[in-house]
C-alpha cells in the first residue's frame, strides 16, 4: 500500500465521517500530502538501439536510479530508437510532450536547431573535463538553455563518451591527397571538414554502415570508440583503425526534458533528476574508460591495425575546422555568442592542462 | 505541517475513533508511512577549514543537494576541521559514530589504515578518469570497502581535485643534486620519495606552511593547485611554482559513512546519498578545472614563475616511487592486492589514453 492509497484512505475516511472540526487542521496537510504522494510515470525516448553499450545502457541506469532515489514517485520507461519514435524525432517528441524526456546527442537536431551542433562535440575543441566545466561554470548551460527554450525543451548533460577514434578506413591516409575522392561516412562538422579536403562524405543510418563499408560503397566511416565499434563489428569490414578522433575530442550525451513536465515536478524530484544527470555524466565516462580499454585489446587480438593520421593531415583538418566553425558562428547571433564563449573558455583552460594532463599522458 | 504530523494526526484520529474495521487496512501503511516520514539529522565532520575552496565548498554543496533531493528527510550539517573534531580525527569520529558522515582524503588515515594511502593518489599513477573507473569498474571500490570495513566505515568517492602541481620552491631544481639537503613540506608517499632522493621532508599543518616557507624554515612545499594555492597565498612566500604534480596525478576526495548509520537509512535515502557522491565527483572536478584556470592567470599576473622539473629529476622520482609503492604493497596481503589491481588497471587503460587524451593535449 503506497502513500497515495493511504492518503486516499485517510482523506476519504475523514471526509466520510464529516469531522468538520478536523478539516482546518488537515486540509493543508492533505494538499501537501497529495503533492508529495503524487507519482509521475514518464516516457523516455532515445536515439539508441535497445541495450546499446554505454549510451543506451547509461540511459537505463539513469532511469533506474531516479526510480530508486524517488522511491518510485518518478518512474521513467526507456524506449529504444524506433520503439515509440525514430531516433531523429526524439527532440520533436519531447518538444511536443509526447514523451516527457529524451536521451540522445545535440548534433542530431542540427536541422531544427543550428546551434545544437556546438553542444555535443567540436573538432579540435574542448576535452571531456573542459566541456563539462564550460557547461557548468563557463556559461555553456545558459547558452544551451537559450538554444532549446523556443522549443520548450530543457537540456542537461547526462553522459560523455570521452574522446573518440578517428574512424575505420580501408585505404591508408599517408598524405592529404589520400583523402581526395574518398567516400567517407561522417556526419556533422567533421564531415564538412572532410568534404573541403576533397573527400565525399555521406550520412548513413547506423544499420547500413557495416554493409556499405564491407561492400566498398564507402571507403571509411567514423563511429565512436572501441567499446561501441567492436560491438558493431566494424573491424570485420575495415583494415585500419585511425586515431586521433579529431572530430570528437569528447561527446556530450544529453537529457532532453519537456519544460512543462519538468516544471510540474515538485522541487525534490527536480533535484533528483538534475543530480541523476550529473551523476550519469560521471557514470558513463567510467563505463567508457573501462570498456574502451578492454575492447581495444580485443580489436588488436583480432588483427585491427591502428594508424595515426599524419601531422600534415591533422593540421589541414584543424585549419578547415576553424573555417567551418567560423562560418557556423556567423549564421546567427546565438551561434556567434556560443562559439565566442567556447573559444574563450578553451583559451582560458588550456594553459593549466598543458602543465597537468599533457604532462601526465606524455609520461606513459 | 509535514507528513509525520499528518500521519500522527490521522493515526491518532483513527485510533481514537476505534475504527477496528480500518485497522487491518491502515496498520501496515502506517508502519511504512512512519518509516518514510522519519527524518535523519546527520553531522558531517570534515578535514577542511571553513569554506575551503573546492574541497570544503564541495562538501557544503553535497549536503545541500542531499537535503533538497530528500525533501528535508536527510539533513547533513557540515562542520569545518576543528569545529567538532580536529581534521585528523575525522575517520575515528565517523568510525565511532560521533558523526554519521565525514569528508576528507584517504591518505590522512594512513596511521590507522595503511592501505588508505592507495585511495587518494599514487605518484605517477592513474589519471582522474582512470582512478574513477578503477573504483567503479576495476575492483577498486571493493578493496576500499575491505580496507575500511574493520572500522565500520563505508567509503565513497565524492570529488576529485584533478591533477595537482609539483609545489612551491624557493630554490631552482636543475638537477637531482639540487634536491639534496632541501627542506620540503610534503606528506605521504611523495614525501618518502623525496627523502630517498636526499631531501628532508617535514609534515606541517596547513596553518604553519606559509610562515615556514616565508621565513626559510622550509625551502619548498607541496600544496594543491592554483585554485587553493592562490587562496592560501603561497605565491607570496615562494618564487617558483613547479610542475608537473608527479605526486598526485589526481586526488580522490572521499565521503566516509558510518556503516550502521548508512544501514539505518531507507533504500531511497541510501540511493540519494550514493548518487549525490557520484554527482559530487563530477561537480568538484568542474569547479577545479574552471577555478584553476582563473587562478593560474592571476598567479602569472602576480609574478609567479612556472618551472618544470627536469626529465632527469622526474625519471628518478618515478623510479623511487615504484620502489616505495612496492614496499608498501609488501606490508600486507590487502596492500599487495590493491597495488596489483591498480597496476593491472593502469596497464589496461594506458594504451587507449595514448590514442586519445595524450594526442588531444599535445595539439594544444
UniProtKB/TrEMBL annotation, chains A, B:
**Positions with a binding annotation for Na(+):** 223
According to the UniProt record, one GO cellular component term is: tripartite ATP-independent periplasmic transporter complex
Q: Which GO terms describe its biological process?
A: transmembrane transport
The signal peptide stretch is: 1-20
Q: Which domain of life is it from?
A: Bacteria
Q: Which GO terms describe its molecular function?
A: metal ion binding
Q: Which UniProt keywords apply?
A: Metal-binding, Signal
Which residues of this UniProt protein bind substrate? 164, 185, 222, 248
What NCBIfam families would the database entry show? TRAP_S1
Record's PANTHER family? EXTRACYTOPLASMIC SOLUTE RECEPTOR PROTEIN (PTHR33376:SF5), PTHR33376
What name does UniProt use for this protein?
Answer: TRAP-type mannitol/chloroaromatic compound transport system, substrate-binding protein
State the organism named in the record: Pseudomonas indica
Traced from the root, the source organism's taxonomic lineage reads: Bacteria, Pseudomonadati, Pseudomonadota, Gammaproteobacteria, Pseudomonadales
